[in-house]
Each structure stands twice: as C-alpha cells, then as structure tokens.
Amino acid sequence: METRRNLWFFSLCFSAVIGLGGPNMILTQPRFVRANQNGEASFVCGFNSTEIGEEFQVIVHKGHIIKNTEVCSASFTNHTMKPLEKKSLLHCLVWPSKENVSITIWGLNVTDTDLYICRISRMHPPPYKESTGRGTVIYVNRAASYSRDQEADAGFLLTAVLTVLATLLFLYSISITVVYCKHKMKDDTIYINVRK
C-alpha cells in the first residue's frame, strides 16, 4: 500500500513538473525572403493567439541565437499593440497583430544575407513561455546593396569630374586664343603706302 501511494504521489508530482510550462507556442515564419532594391525585407512571424498572453516580447536574431546577434527587439502588451521602430546599424519596424508579428528590416546590404530567427516570449501571465522559429533566410543581391547614399556619391563624383574637364577645356581655349593674338601682333610685315 505504501508503495502504491508513493508511486501515485511521484506520478502526480512528475506530471505537474512536466506540465508546468504547458505546451510550447507554435511559431511559424517563411523560409526565404528576398530583399527589394532598396535593401528592405519584410516577413511575418505567426503564432497561436491563445498562447501569447497579455505581455510578450519579440526578438529577431541574425545568424544563430547562440552568438547573440540581436537585430530587433520589442515588447508589447495587449493594451499597446502599436508598431515599434528600432534604429541601429539595421533599421527595423515591428508591427504586432492578434495572430502574428510583421517585421520589416531595412538598410540591408550584400553582407547581411543570412538566417534571421524570430523568437517570441510570453512574459505575463506566468508561466514564462518562449518559442523560436526555424528562421528566414533573407537574401540581399548586389543591386539592393547599392544604396541611395552611394548613388548620390557617384553622382557627385561624376559632376566634379565633368566640371574639372570643362574648366580645363575653357582654359586651354583661352590660352590658345591669347597665344594666337600675341603672335598676330608681332607680325613683322611693314605697311607701305603706295598711293603717294
């Protein structure tokens, strides 16, 4: 009898410990996204709205989570479902809704082609739950990495080169004209009036 009671107590405690965290949230995100010409990429992290709770946090990692390369992080409550914009080396905008979180990252260049992993943590009510997506590969091609700043720099450089070239041609034509006029004035021809 004592053994049965201990076994029953052990199974009750074990099931309580196993079920304490509850089932994990199911988090989905696309496998592949291509950045547009401006170096901007958007993807959606979807989740089960019944598991999210009143307060949650969204974190986007670049590469593997172990390296702790956090690109975006935002915290939301059910009362403040407003978009959050974070500006760092990469700019991002996190827009929550009832069943997903839309994430837009811009300022991407070719070296930012990588795996971006979405992680959502339920902060309140307890128990704390966390779910990590499988990751989205964001591909940035060479054309997208050619930013507007580089385009402006290239335009300025072209204007400067053309201005210098035009100035040199103008100075060359002036100097040729001056040399010609001086040579013409030094002409040794003598005018003789023959009508006398």
Number of strands: 11
Strand residues, percent = 25-35%
Instruction: Report the principal-axis shape.
Output: rod-shaped
Please count the helical segments. Answer: 3
| Helix share bin | 25-40%
Rg for CA atoms: 35 Å
Overall tally of structural domains: 2
Structural class: alpha+beta
CATH level-3 fold name of the largest domain: Immunoglobulin-like
CATH uppermost class of the largest domain: Mainly Beta
CATH homologous superfamily title of the largest domain = Immunoglobulins
Alpha carbon gap, first and last residue: 158 Å
Describe this protein's structure.
The chain has 196 residues and is of the alpha+beta class. The protein folds into 2 domains: 20-145, Immunoglobulins (Immunoglobulin-like), CATH 2.60.40.10; 147-186. 30% of the residues lie in helices and 33% in strands. It has 3 helices and 11 strands, in the order αβββββββββββαα. A hairpin with a 4-residue loop joins β9 (114-124) and β10 (129-132). It starts with a helix and ends in an 11-residue tail after the last helix. The model is unreliable at 8-21 (pLDDT under 50).
Short description:
The protein has helices at residues 2-18, 142-145, 148-185; strands at 27-28, 32-34, 40-47, 55-62, 70-77, 84-87, 91-96, 100-106, 114-124, 129-132, 136-139. With 196 residues, it is of the alpha+beta class. Mean pLDDT is 77; it is low at 8-21.
